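Reader question, answered in our methods column.
A reader sent in the components of a multi-part assembly and asked whether the whole thing could be modeled at once rather than chain by chain. We filled in our standard form and ran it. Here is what they sent:
COMPLEX SIZE: two components
ENTRIES:
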Amino acid sequence: MVVLEYDQMETASTSTYAFESQTSDEKVVFILRAHPVTNLPWVLVAILLVLVPPILAATNLLEGFSNNGIRLSAQNLEGFVLIWYLVVFAFILQSFLHWYFNIYILTDRRIVDIDFFQLLYKRVSSAQLTNIEDITASTGGVFQVLFHYGDVHIQTAGTNVNFEFLKVPNPGEVKRQIDQQIHKLKL
Amino acid sequence: MTEAFAEIFTEKNLSLVIKAFQLVLLGLFIIFSLLTIRQVDIMNKALVTSIRLEVRIIGYLQLFLVLGVFVIILLR
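And here is the structure of the entire assembly that came back:
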């Protein structure tokens, strides 16, 4: 199966993807996730967290604790530093996993939204293309204009769930592709 | 009473209390790491990607790192 990945849409790199509820004759048109630049906040936080122990050591802030009567042994301090870096590692891993596996899929029949939140919660929503009534692509703000990403709002018929593809690269092209698939189905 | 308390609360004992606290934290971290491995499995099942093996290895790496730090702190 060949999949267009929108974060490299121009090069249209080919990768092998499959998803859980996919039927054998269902063809994936594209798999989308939030633009890579949306990872910038957590990457910056991670860099700051990595720098905390060396900064504390360099500025002798821990000496202040000792002067106030709390005396940590070198072994205790090293233990806390090791635990700190484990926490940073876990933070980076969780942030990456949530970015990488929260995806939006367009197939030749439906759209699928796979969301993971907290540690073990998963939500999979899908809607048939024939139930889609309205698609709106929007871009706004300095970052979104600069890096060419935005939101795609998909309204479905009746009481079905509406979809939001948030912070996806090239929202206009995403809208065009969905429109095209709907048009193909109607022919 | 205060003197007796001060004797119990020596620097060595404080160090042991902190060590115990760190081990409890790491115990919780081991549970978290096991949950992360399960989480990665669920994610890999939901979406099969080209990096599924690497993600799985990183999940286990986290567990082994936590176990390693647990043993280091325990044995010191």
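What stands out: The CA atoms of residues 3 and 112 of chain A lie 14 Å apart. Chain A has two domains: 4-34+103-186, 42-96.
Send us your own complexes using the same form.
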